Amino acid sequence: MRPKEQIEKIASYLRFDKIINRWRNDIKVYIISYPKSGRTWLRILFGKAICEQFHLDETLLLETHLLTRSAKINPTLFTHDGAGFDGSISEFIRSDIYGIKKIVTFYKIWLDHKTVPKDFLLLKYENMHKDTSEVLRSLLSFTGVQNVPENTIETAVNFSDFENMRKLESLQKFSKTSMQPGDTNDEESYKVRKGKVGSYLEYLSQDDMNFINQVIEEAGHPFGY
Predict the structure, then answer these.
(1) Comparing 200 with 106, which gets the higher pLDDT?
(2) Angle at the Cα of 138 (from 134 to 143), degrees rounded to 5?
(3) pTM flag (> 0.90)
(4) To bridge 199 with a disulfide, which of 36, 84, 156, 194 should be the other Cys (CB 3.0-4.6 Å)?
(5) Beta 76-79 vs 29-32: how paired, if at all?
(6) Residue-wise over 145-165: b if at least 16 C-beta within 10 A, else e?
């Protein structure tokens, strides 16, 4: 089986239909994430850096494919499949369709097949908090952008700071409707919500955590999950 067919098979199994539907011959880099894993922060961080480095209009900031093509670098696409769910958080994590088993399976499959793409880069939300600049540099390098000045990195990091992103979202400065709160008075309706590591502890019971840890243990802790 060829690499493209292998990745399509993985995407189909995980119901990542957008990966299959958006497979374009010119795309060189796919940035694939599970929903609610820090993708928006990374996308804005990357987009701002590209806009600064290549002097492009910020209206392209979230249009990653068009942005990277305009910069004449490896065409890049952010993608993940959305999911809607009605029910409690305890029901959610135990769901065979959306829950923790599906999430851990996602990581396990990519761990087992990380040699299928020509190259593979793992980015972690925790590392973004620990050293945002270093994560951004590694992503820029991975997409073919080298020798980025420190002031460009600093500008992108400051722009994508949680408080600034929250401010921009509340003022509806982003053109995409997905980056606008459903209710400006409801913190949970914002795309940018808490911006911190470990906030799941505010929502999960001890029984929930025990269940999650058991699933992770049985899967062999893929990517140190």
Answers:
(1) 106
(2) 150
(3) no
(4) 194
(5) parallel
(6) beebeeebbebbbebbeeeeb
